[in-house]
Amino acid sequence: MVTMYSTPWCGYCRRLKQQMERANIAHTVVDIEQDPAAADFVMKINGGNATVPTVRIRPAAGGDEIVLTNPSIVQVKEALAGSGVTG
């Protein structure tokens, strides 16, 4: 499962979302301005900063969760390849 934490005004988020869609990577987008729990998660991961995009990859069966801050599409693909999660 791939989750991208985002805001509506984030250009980097829009670009990564489009790139993941073109690469057929299934994902859910969560607006941290509308979801306080998501904002808390992002700030916890990023040393108190609400840095987006933050991408969370959670393997369905076992394996370690992967969290990437402001990743490139290449980094997302590499993380997915290593996680066992399919797009």
The gyration radius over C-alpha positions equals 12 Å
- As for the CATH topology, it is Glutaredoxin
- Tally the helices: what do you get? 3
CATH domain class name: Alpha Beta
Coarse shape: globular
Cα end-to-end separation = 9 Å
Helix-strand topology string: EHEHEEH
Kindly give the count of domains: 1
Low-confidence stretches: none
Structural class: alpha+beta
**At the fourth CATH level, what is the homologous superfamily?**
Glutaredoxin
CATH architecture annotation? 3-Layer(aba) Sandwich
Q: Mean of residue pLDDT? A: 93
Largest sheet: 4 strands, mixed
Helix content: 25-40%
- Give the strand order, joined by hyphens, for the main sheet: 2-1-3-4
Written overview of the protein:
- Pfam families: Glutaredoxin.
- Residues 2-57 form the Glutaredoxin domain.
- This protein is an alpha+beta fold and 87 residues long.
- The chain has one domain (2-83): Glutaredoxin (3-Layer(aba) Sandwich), CATH 3.40.30.
- The protein is 38% helix and 20% strand.
- The chain is built from 3 helices and 4 strands.
- It has a 4-stranded mixed β-sheet, with helices on both faces.
- Strand 1 (2-6), helix 1 and strand 2 form a beta-alpha-beta unit.
- The termini are close together.
Summarize the structure.
It is built from three helices and four strands, in the order βαβαββα. The chain has helices at 11-22, 36-45, 73-83; strands spanning 2-6, 28-31, 54-57, 66-69. Residues 2-57 form the Glutaredoxin domain.
